[in-house]
Specification:
With 322 residues, this protein is mostly helical. Helix content is 72%, strand content 0%. It contains 13 helices and no strands. Helix 1 crosses helix 11, helix 3 packs across helix 8 and helix 6 packs antiparallel against helix 12. It is globular. The N terminus is likely disordered.
């Protein structure tokens, strides 16, 4: 009887992990914001990448996924470490420092749309139809409602924050394209790819980051725990491992739907814990973004859904989206 129910039990476990994954990704905005009150965005990115790298490296070594022959593709790993590693994490850390974490979380919901657009431009194998275009219109209208570039009261400080979040989102979209074009044909384990990506990004940031004043993070034990464990270990490294467990048990499309939940969690934590003001228009904008993503992805034919890039691509580290 136990073995008869085993598949159902594993699937139920996958949904539990799915919920944990969405929660962890959503909480990263809170941990990033609180850390930014004590240390610089570059220091935050360095700690996050390095702590996220440790569990991924451990599992990759235990699973014997790393091969010496992979060194011949080091130039691709370096490119990915910038697009989906050091530059991405810095951009979002800087954007979250400048903006309320709730707004940054809302804007992150547009990442699947940016990924779709970059794939359509550079790969030209993403189906573009009326439903996809309608979804993009909804989504980018939501982004515009949050950014409000026409509003003279929007400060240069806020615009810079929007710009950094936009840069980080663009990095993710380009990383999907790069992974599809150059890494997918190599047949290297996704776990190995993510290990190389985070490892090189960790080394780059450790060498280039100015750690002056970084010990200030320990002035508040809870903020330090949030950075090292909430944002780094769990929000980046263990989140990757959870994501691939969900992909294996539920499929990539269902796993990618975990991206719909973090913006909501970011709004809740930002307003309830940090006391950030969330306007009704912002909530409408977030709803428009999420509706746009759902409509856009539903416009893909079934064949495209199996082969096209989901909002988190199995070819690269999924934690790079948060």
């Amino acid at each position: 009887m136990v073995f008869t129910n085993w598949p159902a039990t594993m699937k139920n476990n996958a949904y539990i992990v799915f919920g944990f994954l969405a929660l962890v990704w959503g909480m990263t905005f809170l941990f990033n914001k609180t850390a930014s009150t004590l240390i610089t965005p570059t220091q935050i990115a360095t700690v996050r990448v390095f702590m996220g790298f440790l569990p991924v490296l451990a599992v990759a070594v235990i699973g014997r996924k790393l091969k010496w022959r992979h060194l011949r593709y080091a130039h691709h790993f370096i490119a990915m470490s910038v697009l989906a590693g050091s530059l991405y994490y810095f951009s979002f850390a800087k954007g979250i420092q400048l903006l309320p974490s709730s707004l940054a979380g809302m804007l992150s919901g547009a990442i699947p749309m940016i990924s779709f657009v970059t794939a359509a431009i550079f790969l030209r194998d993403e189906p573009i139809n009326r439903r996809s275009m309608l979804g993009l219109m909804f989504g980018f209208a939501g982004v515009a409602m949050i950014a409000r570039p026409w509003d003279a009261s929007i400060s240069a400080h806020d615009l810079a924050g929007f710009g950094y979040v936009g840069l980080g989102s663009l990095c993710v979209g380009l990383s999907f394209v790069y992974a599809r074009k150059f890494l997918s044909p190599l047949g290297i384990s996704p776990l190995a790819l993510c290990t190389y990506q985070l490892g090189i990004a960790s080394l780059t940031l450790l060498v280039t980051t100015d750690f002056t004043g970084a010990t200030a993070i320990f002035d508040n034990g809870w903020i330090a725990l949030g950075l090292f464990f909430g944002l780094g270990l769990f929000g980046t490294g263990i989140a990757y491992l959870c994501y691939y467990y969900v992909v294996e048990k539920l499929g990539a499309v269902k796993a990618a739907s975990a991206t719909y939940i973090p913006p909501i969690i970011a709004v809740l934590t930002g307003s309830l814990i940090l006391g950030e003001t969330v306007r009704l228009l912002d909530l409408v904008a977030m709803a428009a973004i999420m509706t746009g993503v759902v409509v856009m992805q539903s416009g893909r034919p079934r064949k495209a859904n199996r082969n096209s890039i989901p909002s988190r691509s199995p070819e690269l580290c999924p934690a790079t989206n948060r």
